[in-house]
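Hey Z.,

So I finally got round to the 2-acetamido-2-deoxy-beta-D-glucopyranose thing we talked about over coffee. Here's the setup:
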Amino acid sequence: MAGGYFFLLVVILNVSSSFQTSDTVNPCCYYPCQNKGVCVRYDPDQYVCDCTRTGYYGRNCTIPELLTRIRDFVRPSPAFYHYILTRFKWFWEIINNTFIRDTIVRLVLTVRSNLIPSPPTYNSAYGYISWEAYSNVSYFTRVLPPVPDDCPTPMGTKGKLELPDATYLVETFLQRRNFIPDPQKTNLMFAFFAQHFTHQFFKTFGRMGRGFTKGLGHGVDLSHVYGDNLERQHALRLFKDGKLKYQIINGDMYPPTVADAPVYMIYPDNVPVEKRLAMGQEVFGLLPGLMMYATIWLREHNRVCDILKKEHPVWDDEQLFQTARLILIGETIKIVIEDYVQHLSGYFLKLKFDPELLFGVQFQYRNRIAVEFNELYHWHPLMPDNFNILGQVYNYSNFIYNTSMLTDYGVEALVESFTRQIAGKVKHFLFMT
Ligand code: HEM
Ligand SMILES: *[C@@H]1O[C@H](CO)[C@@H](O)[C@H](O)[C@H]1NC(C)=O
Ligand SMILES: *[C@@H]1O[C@H](CO)[C@@H](O)[C@H](O)[C@H]1NC(C)=O
Ligand SMILES: *[C@@H]1O[C@H](CO)[C@@H](O)[C@H](O)[C@H]1NC(C)=O
Ligand SMILES: *[C@@H]1O[C@H](CO)[C@@H](O)[C@H](O)[C@H]1NC(C)=O
Ligand SMILES: *[C@@H]1O[C@H](CO)[C@@H](O)[C@H](O)[C@H]1NC(C)=O
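And the result:
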């Protein structure tokens, strides 16, 4: 890496006038480097900021280069773009029917993907660039390096010597006192979609540590439908016509029980084995909203298999399964972009899922899920105080781990109810231009 050579050069030439502290506190604990400059320590009490390609220079990467100055002067702020995209409906309706729509959607996709460091940088064990941090996908990546272990306080040099009790923090700052309906009119159908969709790649592997993930695909691999490993996938498959195992209740298709598809699922002891549904994601027994989406995707997979088999009578089970999975991945991304992100963004620009938009341009298809992304996606305030299913009000004890609710009401009734019930306001949706 260019940064590494720069660092070596500095050490060899010993050009820096160093920052000294009275005792030898790791100087990087002060976070001296600005504008994404990288703090490199080369003596107990000395550091340099590697400002390579930051657009800044100087001891702490604080002085803008000429190009940076010009760019900052002429470039409109992200808030400006957001303003334009969320107003002038008539304008966007005209754009919608021209090639300019494709150009802007392409721009949105490339600009946003370029905000993310790629290849991935740090993880919870490595605060510097390393092969291990790059290649070991058992870790979530980290955009910001962890605070060095030898800092005087858990936050570097600021804050208390010991972090306050988490329960205290939650109760004081995070816990909701009053339900606030979402001003964008987000409903529970959206909320459960968010939870269902993101739990294919947000799967903290607690047993290994908070910095680890079980979602080795790091993206939209539909492991929440098919399982995150081959053994689980096989336990969920029917091995006939590409289909997934299922059971029929009241004439409708539902996920099989764990007796039929022996996969590890999290259920409390009071849920009898014959009521335990088997799904791709081990936590989806938690909420009828998640089971509902699991059921919808199960039905969709098997429906697509029927169509594929008709069109390709010669395909074996494996090819039908694999092709159906690819189709469901495409369907998922289409829904995520054209409905889910469209809603979140509040844009009047009509977003579009079209892989061909990115043909012929540089685009990074590989992805790595970051701890920060996971942290910001804890949209728990979306949840209501109770759940209204066809006029009947259920509290949390009635609702959680209640697999009968899915089969008693059926998918349509749940879709109807979740669509009508408004979700809570999330204070900081992360979708800003
Ligand atoms: C009643 C509904 C919900 C309950 C009871 C619930 C409960 C939980 C629990 C117990 C955890 C584990 C916390 C930990 O390990 O520290 C968790 C994690 C999480 N929740 Fe929820 N949650 C709910 C709804 C949602 C919704 C609607 C979202 C929306 C996106 C969401 C997003 C997340 C995320 C991203 C994580 C981290 C997952 C991981 O890394 O493994 N949750 N939730
Ligand atoms: C660089 O940062 C350090 C630590 O924050 C500060 O003490 C020092 O004055 C800064 N130097 C310059 C040239 O900005
Ligand atoms: C946008 O254009 C597409 C076709 O390009 C059309 O199907 C859709 O209805 C249009 N939407 C709006 C809001 O004009
Ligand atoms: C990834 O790192 C963890 C923790 O050090 C280790 O247990 C695991 O074996 C590593 N995985 C690979 C594929 O090297
Ligand atoms: C939830 O409702 C049930 C009645 O359906 C009631 O017995 C129970 O006490 C309620 N639980 C809570 C936590 O309010
Ligand atoms: C589960 O939901 C059903 C409604 O479908 C309800 O009758 C039942 O009481 C709920 N179970 C529990 C344990 O609350």
